[in-house]
Amino acid sequence: KNPKTSEDFQQDFRDPKVFKNPVKKGFSMVLAVGKMLRFYYSEDFINWDFTGEFDPSIKGFGGICECPDCFPLSCNNKEYWILTLSSILPEEKIGNNLANGEYPYAHVMQYFVGNFDGENFKCVSDIDEKRNQLINNMFGADISDKKPLVLDYGLDNYAMVSFSGMSAKNPVMIGWGECWEYVNNTPLYKSSRGKMTLPRKLSLVETSKGKRLSFEIAVDIVHETFGLAEGQSITLYGENGKLLVITLTDNKIWVVRKASKSDIPDAPSGFRAFSREAAMHINVINEYTYTLETIV
């Protein structure tokens, strides 16, 4: 028997994520519906009632929504809820002004920090609204940080969602390790193309700019999945032989670039196929650019 909602089917009505509702004791579902996210509630997984709607464009990027997720995380002994989603930006929003809802690429993952009241998600401002309004009135300046919160500034992470039934304290997420901007031009390997990201454990931390998501590689899951013990490695091969080795050492994952004959403990890392022409024009930039190297 197919699930039924209290509303008719619409275009881009997709990507349901079901989670336990701690208020009503049943189950809630967050669903991508065009440029909006909608919440539904059910007690039997068959009949779903509409309970709320969230517009990501108000405090984040607009555009078509994909693969939403909603889960609790604690920070400073207080529980918050995290809403994540992937967005397909309209052409007019592709740019470099994040405060104006722009992003350099057409696809981006974003997140929101807030509360879930059992029916809908509501953002929680990281700045005291009364103090903010007072300063606005006195000096005519808006001190709010209006930039949307981006889950990952790299390109190779999209449609990331969390596993259900795992640790409630630190949710584990995994995503699609590719990017629509170039995925159709990547090499085929035995009639397959693409990969998933390594699983990440999430936590919510307090920073000078407000509450932000923090990630670490879920080493225990990598160990269980690949059968790695301390000091053991996974070797990846390409058309020209050995590409790199991933070694489990001291509970951290290090990427060793064998092709360059160097041992680099890799923090912000990624692997990407470039054409010769593209490689001659590309600049790799992130928040830690002063430590970042691109090895060709």
Describe the 3D structure.
Mean pLDDT is 76; it is low at 250-260. Helix content is 8%, strand content 39%. The chain has helices spanning 129-139, 219-226, 276-279, and strands spanning 4-5, 13-20, 27-33, 36-42, 47-54, 64-75, 78-88, 107-116, 121-123, 149-150, 158-162, 172-176, 200-207, 210-217, 233-238, 241-249, 252-256. The longest helix is centred in the middle third of the chain and has 11 residues, at 129-139. The strands form four sheets. Strands 1-5-4-3-2 form a five-stranded mixed β-sheet, with no helix packed on it. Strands 6, 7, 8, 9 and 10 form a five-stranded antiparallel β-sheet that branches. Strands 11-12-13-14 form a four-stranded antiparallel β-sheet, with no helix packed on it. With 296 residues, it is mainly beta.
Q: How many angstroms separate the termini?
A: 53 Å
Count of DSSP strands:
17
Percent helix range: under 10%
Report the portion of residues in β strands: 35-45%
- Strand line-up of the largest beta sheet: 1-5-4-3-2
Specify the overall morphology.
globular
How can the largest sheet be summarized?
5 strands, mixed
**Which structural class do you get from the secondary structure elements?**
mainly beta
Number of helices: 3
As a whole number of angstroms, the C-alpha radius of gyration is: 21 Å
What string, H for helix and E for strand, traces the elements in order? Answer: EEEEEEEEEHEEEEEHEEEH
Low-confidence stretches: 250-260
Mean pLDDT: 76
